[in-house]
Design a protein that fits this description.
single chain; mainly alpha
Length: 142
């Protein structure tokens, strides 16, 4: 009676019941008449796919296989490269400078501390401090 109030007869309701069996386990009915797998097998397939993706991603990141990037480059490392065959650096590299703080670790730690306080990357903090110093020196003394 309840089905008839929705405009569905008992025969139509029985036709719509899913009787399709899972293609993997052959034990349970599928999650939908159009789906070939039951819920458990669908979850297992998704899990296997995610594991395979994680495995290939970890292989790509590994420096041992030659494909990976190894240690990530910082912005300043990416800007410097060898000059071309004519001995001239490309135009983008004419404006690049590498600063080695090996002899001055205390200065680098101070710059890092200020960068954390001002919520900036260290590279941008160095540029900001340099720009601020230059503008201070270029102002005429009164």
């Amino acid at each position: 009676m309840a089905l008839e109030s929705w405009g569905v007869t008992m025969e139509e309701a029985e036709k719509k019941v899913n009787t399709r069996v899972c293609g993997d386990c052959k034990e349970r009915t599928t999650i939908h008449p159009n789906s070939p797998y039951c819920a458990r097998c669908m979850a297992e397939r998704g899990k296997r796919k995610r594991e395979a993706q994680a495995e290939t991603a970890s292989e790509e990141k590994s420096p041992a296989n030659g494909k990976g990037r190894g240690r990530p480059r910082t912005r300043s490392q990416g800007l410097i490269s060898k000059p071309d065959s004519e001995g001239k650096a490309p135009a983008a590299q004419e404006n690049a400078v590498t600063v080695d703080f090996a002899a001055y670790p205390a200065v680098l730690e101070e710059v890092k501390r200020v960068a954390r306080e001002e919520v900036r990357p260290v590279e941008l903090q160095i540029l900001y401090m340099l720009k601020k110093q230059i503008s201070k020196e270029s102002q005429p003394a009164i």
